[in-house]
Amino acid sequence: MANSPQFIIDGLKATVEGKEILKGLSLSIKGGEVHAIMGPNGTGKSTLASTLMGHPKYEVTEGSVSLNGEDVLEMATDERARAGLFLAMQYPSEITGVTNADFLRSAINARRGEGNEISLIKFIRQMESKMKELEMNPEFMHRYLNEGFSGGEKKRNEILQMMNLDPSIVILDEIDSGLDIDALRIVATGVNAMRSEDRGFLIITHYQRLLNYIKPDFVHVMMQGRIVKSGGPELAERLENEGYDWVKEELGIVDETVGKDETEFKVPMNTTAPKY
Ligand SMILES: Nc1ncnc2c1ncn2[C@@H]1O[C@H](COP(=O)(O)OP(=O)(O)O)[C@@H](O)[C@H]1O
Ligand SMILES: [Mg+2]
């Protein structure tokens, strides 16, 4: 498979504001595979996503990340996007003054490279057909990026970007949060339509619900800034039925979160309290 991407995260450690949040995380994703990372809040999932995209707040202190043998950590964020990495953020930013269409066209052209820009006609046709698939109102093309969009509209817009950019590794950070069941189904249909041998997915979620619609090949549990357990889809089902406490008990984890000051927890956390 000439086009099948290989994304390898090895022993990744990262700090934010001097606190170590990622504590040695390893994961390999190949084209055609869908990996889900599940975990309670505060375990470092979004930090992983931001670190992989090169967010300047997150400093890598150890480990490596490569895409098709190339060192991702050496690349600036835009170079990572050009290399084929895509992140749908948990909290997409609003950008006043830049329309959705302007933004997407620039992003597509940046990915395609100089001399290979998409024609206006082709761009509009592509946008219209993808927006129809996502049941988005065409007027969203001309609205400022995410400005005044509802939570669900922002998430659909992230998926619209993904569909237009043709990435080789897709990271979706809690794409299901804030979505009602209809929007969830639409988003999942969009994602499933993009599944192929030349694309790999990393789906971050704390609910199993999304995984009823997007069937993962591998499921990983994240706690304390690392992957503590991996399995197949049956692992997600067990988490749905039994929550995360059995994983913590099995591994002797009292507090699954990461990055909090020790002094905040003079009293042990109540680990049996429902999290959601
Ligand atoms: N931008 C940031 N500034 C300061 N602390 C952060 C930042 N991002 C993450 N953290 C720290 O990392 C911990 C894990 O957060 P996060 O990665 O968002 O977890 P999750 O996505 O699993 O809920 C937080 O509790 C916080 O201490
Ligand atoms: Mg998060």
From TrEMBL:
A GO molecular-function annotation: ATP binding
Domain named ABC transporter: residues: 7-249
Keyword annotations from UniProtKB, A to Z: ATP-binding, Nucleotide-binding
Pfam family, one: ABC_tran
UniProt-listed Gene3D superfamilies: P-loop containing nucleotide triphosphate hydrolases
CDD domains per record: ABC_FeS_Assembly
Domain of life: Bacteria
Family the UniProt entry places it in: Belongs to the ABC transporter superfamily. Ycf16 family.
NCBIfam families, A to Z: sufC (TIGR01978)
UniProt name for this protein: Fe-S cluster assembly ATPase SufC
The encoding gene: sufC
